[in-house]
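Q: Hi! First time doing this. I have a protein sequence and I read that you can turn it into a structure. Is that right? Here it is:
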Amino acid sequence: MESEAITNMNSTKKQNRKGFTIIELIVVVVIIGILAAITIVSYNGIQAKARDASVLSDIDTMDALQTNFSLKNGLAGKAYYSGSGADATLGFTPSNGNVIDVVTNGTDYCIRGYNPSSTKNSIYNSFTKESSVGICSTLGPSSAAIADSGTINKWTQLSAGNGYTCAVALDNQAYCWGDNSNGKLGNNSTVGSLVPVAVNTSGVLSGKSIKSIAAGPNHTCAIASDNQVYCWGPNDWGQLGNSTTTRSLVPVAVNTSGVLSGKSIKSIAVGWNFTCAIASDNQAYCWGWGNRGELGNGSATSNSVPVAVTNTGVLSGKTIKAIAAYNNTCVIASDNQVYCWGYNATGGLGNGSTTDSSVPVAVIKSGVLSGKTINSIDVGGASCAIASDSQAYCWGYGVDGELGNGSITSSSVPVAVTNTGVLSSKTISLMSSLGGFTCAIASNSQAYCWGYGVDGELGNGSTTSSSVPVAVNNSGVMSGKLLQSITVGQNHACATSLDGQFYCWGSGTNGELGNGLITSSLTPIVMRSAP
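A: Yes, that's right. Below is the predicted 3D structure, encoded as structure tokens:
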């Protein structure tokens, strides 16, 4: 009996072990999921703690290295950073106004520190710390740091070029960022930068400060405190003016032993592979590419040292007040009229022809310019001027609407930019051109652009070109802002507001918008602060 009972009991157990019920399986799965989640959270927490410890250690290192001020300012032991998940960011401002900016993708991190009260108000470059080489460029700045940059911008002049931007800061030194093809950033490198890098001052600029800077299609020039010109970048045609055709990744001095002997420089204009300047004798001088007459000296050859622009003919007895260059060069002379020379296939000389000229020719002043004098001029795909009636007039290339007159055809004589629509009842105070578009600041201190707009150059939230002026978006970061200056590059533009803030829009694929990112923007964004 006992043996039979044991057999029956074992049989019953076997029957009971046929499997779990559905409810039991669900419970088991839930328990496993909870345990897995706890494990993952615990692991992530360990990762986050390790990362945060590294961040705090790096901040301590930055603080120890910086002798002029304390980043921590008595906040030792407090959490500067606590992030989780992808793209966690923090922009932290201690009580002394310094800023800690941390960006992370969950594992890697980038730290930057800022001191807005200092003349050189940021340790953005010298004291950036990153968990792996190059991660700062990938992660970019935190949104808080971008917002804070409005209080610490210290640029005094901006100049937009082809895929890059340069500026002069309050320390009277030059900085550039963006594309660095052939060394046009001037920092002894050909590697592009998403953040401002200092133009090299160890050579010919040693001990000198910078008064103005001009970023061009491919090279850059500046006027230093000695009132001489220094250039850097490609030099295939002698556009650096230093008697060679060898590129330079750092500034070189423009030759002053010839026609510029004993003269100082008042202003400069950088064109495609050539450079022009107005000297202290109020005459124009050019150097570099000259095969289409760009040097204005009666020749169709290039020159690696400055040559004097012909001042006989239409310029006889006149001095030069302003100069601008791109494919051709135009000046305002002492009679307040415009004279141009160089490339003219699309009518950029404004003299009613499409024939190149190696000497200055007068822009036609009958028609829309009849009875008017010229206040300012700039040259891009089209040549544009502000006349004495404070209205804009353009001539030259117009296929993408560069003339602003509602057409998409070129014109070899000046035409009036449409002053109805968004410019109705407004006058024009400032204007800038470089690539295939032009932007202006009107009497209401707002910006308006026209021409090529495929990369968002017009700043109106669109990628459509426009043959008439359109308003740059003044909501968002520019809400309530009044603008005082504007600069146009090949495919981007930047403007300054009266409160000292800086904004850019258009192509940003090289970091030229100055926000630390490599993305374009169809509307204005806040530009990073000066280093």
